[in-house]
Amino acid sequence: MFDAMSNHWLMLSLGCVAGFLALVFVFDVFIQKKHTIMHNFPIVGHIRYWLETVGPEMRQYWVANDKEEMPFNRDERSWIYASAKGENNNFGFGTTEQIYGIGYPIIKHAVFPFPESKAEHVGDDPTYIPCLKVMGESHGRARPFQPQSVINISAMSFGSLGSKAVAAMNIGAKKANCFHNTGEGGVSPYHCHGADIMWQLGTGYFGARDRNGRFSIDVVATKVEQNASIRCIEIKLSQGAKPGKGGILPGKKVTAEIALARDVPVGVDCISPNAHSEFDTVDELIDWIEMIADRTGLPVGIKSAIGNGGFWKELAQRMRERRQGPDFITIDGGEGGTGAAPLAFADHVSLPFKIGFSRVYPIFQEAGISNDIVWIGSGKLGFPDRAVIAFAMGCDAIQIARESMMAIGCIQSLKCHTDHCPAGVATQNRWLQAGLNVDEKAERMARFIKSFRKELLSLSYACGYQHPCQFSGKEIEFSTGVNKFSQLHEVLGYTRDTTGLKETRSVNAAKPELVK
């Protein structure tokens, strides 16, 4: 038979090809552990990486340029992927941005940058950037918490993401020494690999309910006592993707494990109420925050997208009068969102981050309590230039979600709501998750956070500062017209609170120091 095949070149060639493809199949599925796409789609998956390689050359003729894809364009995704993989994340041949376009930001460097040789850091991590404020300190909480990173992983529930994705993020967060927000799905076993945890409580109170489905402070207190990694609690009033509407976990994602954790039926859409049942007024919200903080000892804060401003004025007034309330406030922009949402909510409800934050922060400044609160930004802030603007506006830390997903392999297929995520990130499908190697992706997550912080520090040094929270808005200008640029603090109408750090500009200090 072999002689017959050898005499027929076509059959021999097909046999060789089939044998080669069989070997590739075995290698992709059973041997290699690095690439999720190649595991989940053996043989065919290689085409995706080849097309990605030639993509820039082909798109400029056939599809779109590197700045047109949404919600994250090719350059943005390339920077995330390269940073996470420890590859070269620089770009050549100058900028491709329209730098005279309205709203385009420019960061103004100092003539005498801060010398990197004089930078201080803790341990062996030169990217270490701690939050300069301590959550709960101003309200005398029993267990205050100082985040050890200004860059952290934002709220993404187990359920919205698969178990392996959550585990990889948590392990990566521990390696990078940042905190990991659980999302409203509650604290799952996959959040408990050693990273600091921000436990989010949404309107469904998942993981914090009694047998009747009501919120239970006893359940919360017990869980906090049993898990030392829970360092703070975030009450979600609303989120950028669907403010004023509860979370949506499609039934395809509600496995038996998730149903048990959330106490909901298997395979049925898990939809959170659009409003909290434990409070209806500002004073009731403050009372609830104080009850949780007193019982657990933890700092308690709130997260919200920004719509009507009346609530914030009343909250600031009552916090000043009562000297109580949230220890931190997370402002979420309307451009955010990692899961399922109605199109109208995703596109049109809630203000984008810069507008929303700039309307809330001055209210608390006027009340004289903005320095007592840790301000956290969220909403497509996972890039150094956007982070700098957020810090200059008043943020003390930021949280990133979709950028974290891409750091562990998300390819922006826009299938988060279908349970068919090809990268195994936003799915409960066992086959699709099987290709996601937790250890490999955890390393990528940690590298991305550290690379992000490294570039953020470089920008700070270039402007004469040692910490990004020293940006005040004077170092940033926006294009506000034809050949016209305006300083950020002029556009905003306010200047962020000072950090309390000694001046670090080389022209003003012989020995720049990062001390209070």
- First CA to last CA: what distance? 84 Å
Mean pLDDT: 87
Low-confidence stretches: 503-516
Structural class: alpha/beta
Strand content: 5-15%
Total number of strands? 13
Reading side by side through the largest sheet, how are the strands ordered? Answer: 2-11-10-9-8-5-4-3
In N-to-C order, the SSE pattern is: HHHHHEEHEEHEEHEHEHEHHEHEHHHEEH
Question: The biggest beta sheet, please?
Answer: 8 strands, parallel
Count of helical regions:
17
Radius of gyration: 24 Å
Helix content: 25-40%
**Based on CA inertia axes, which overall geometry fits?**
globular
InterPro entries: Aldolase_TIM (IPR013785), GltB (IPR024188), Glu_synthdom (IPR002932)
Pfam families: Glu_synthase (PF01645)
Family: Belongs to the glutamate synthase family.
Keywords: Membrane, Transmembrane, Transmembrane helix
Features of this protein?
516 residues, alpha/beta, 8-stranded parallel beta sheet, 3-stranded antiparallel beta sheet, 13 strands, globular, disordered C terminus, Glu_synthdom, Glutamate synthase domain-containing protein
